[in-house]
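Contributing: when you submit paired examples, paste them exactly as shown. First protein:
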Amino acid sequence: MADSNGMSITTIRVDSDVKEDAREVFKKLGLSFNSGVDIYLRAVIRGQAIPFDLTLPEAEAVPSTAAVAKRTPTPRSIAAEG
């Protein structure tokens, strides 16, 4: 439910160290924590995506679909092996 200014209250759970570190960065930028979170959410909406790449280190990377397909036996390959 929104207040008279169209603002709603949202509760999220965040590691307290992460929150404090973010608060410090926002403060250096002249922003409140709420403004920083609002900017992030608007970037998500504008880009229709998380506004940064989500990647795994190479050693932890999930194999591509093509790589998995090469390793996954098909009915034909099983018959050929048999």
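Second protein:
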Amino acid sequence: MRPNPTYCPIKVPRRHVRYGETYVRATLYASPYLVATPKGYTKHYYAESERVASRTGSGMDSVNLFLSNLADYRESSVSLNSPVWQESWITEEDFLAKYDTIERQLDHVVYECLWTYPNVVFDSLNILYSYANLSPYQHENEPDCYWYHPDHLGSSSWITFSDGKAVEHLHYLPWGEDFVRQRSTDWHAIYTFSAKEKDTETGYSYFGARYYSSDLSVWLSVDPMADKYPMFSPYVYCANNPVKLVDPNGEDWYENENGAGFWQEGNAATVERNGEIYHNIGANKTIRYGNVSISYEQNEPVSMTEYVLNPEDFRTQMSSPTTKKEGKEGNCFVQAGYMVAQSGTTSLGGTDYDISDSKAGVDYINSQIDRGFSTRVHVDRTGDGKGDHWVAISSRTTNLRTGKVESFGFYDPGTSHKSNGINNIFTFNSNGRLQGINYSDKLYTVVNVRKNINR
């Protein structure tokens, strides 16, 4: 619960005046699925860990008014048999039964348990459901349902209403500041950048363990796992790469049958959470977040892989394991260029655009991956120092303990089998040159890196 308390006297029917805290504009986080405020409540619906919809309901103010009316009439001299009550929406029998029930709940839940009078806790009781038949304060049918359509980071991009019509459209600057925010109604989403709640009073995004300021582009407190990232400031957001990365929530690793998982201390064979059984899969796990995957040893992230190509982007020059395709489709240079194009750029033609210096070539590859682009590279397969085959860079893996790039993945068009073509890696030899073993255990050495049109 996030309160804003004030100290004030509280009058309880048929009891003496007590003093306690009243929570104004407080928010009760009953669970990930229900959030309540004095004005209403919101139910959240998830597909695994992704929030897909929110259904809003009113009634909190109605409950307060209903209870106030009960107390006023209970202590008034107005007879419950009077025309006022005979024409009202509740019978004397229902009135007395409901009032006594509510008072018992007040005594037990609020005073005996909490020794205070927090309105939001009172509101969170099941009164909305228990007294749904009491018009006009009846619980609504929750017709207002909003559906989230996120971008690759999970940030809310479009929000549609129950009828499918768009009610809000958002775009963000790289660090999460609002760039475009268009609404067609008075309602607005509070779960915005990275699908986290933005506090309406401060403008900070709440990530659970810390608050993040998108205006300042920093966390407001130190990373509790800062000792595991010595190469980064403890206030930096997502390793200074907010366009590709999200902030994963960390805790041997457990998975259920659907692949959902978590980390916790201990080595139990199975763990039950929310009625589901999770099985121990050991100390290591790799989790994919959009175009980035993080590899963990226990709960420590040890490496990060950024992908610029996906398996569906693979192209081959082979029609069979031993036969090339006809014409330009059988050319490795052409097929590698096709794959680069799938990342959103164009690899240039002509040797004038080759980078032969190994360090300069690696720097160029890194600069392109930073922008989400692949690169076409020329490799030597025979050991004579001359390029005789072309491949496309598909990913980059960084050691999070040292902050250094360790390897680059590449797609090889020289095989007809996708599984062989996409699982290849370049590492650095003792001279700082990129080398890798392909699917047939042949050594590839990078001799040239071809520039892209966006150089």
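If you have annotations for the second protein, write them as plain sentences, like these:
Confidence is low (pLDDT under 50) at residues 5-23, 70-89, 109-118, 124-139.
The radius of gyration is 31 Å.
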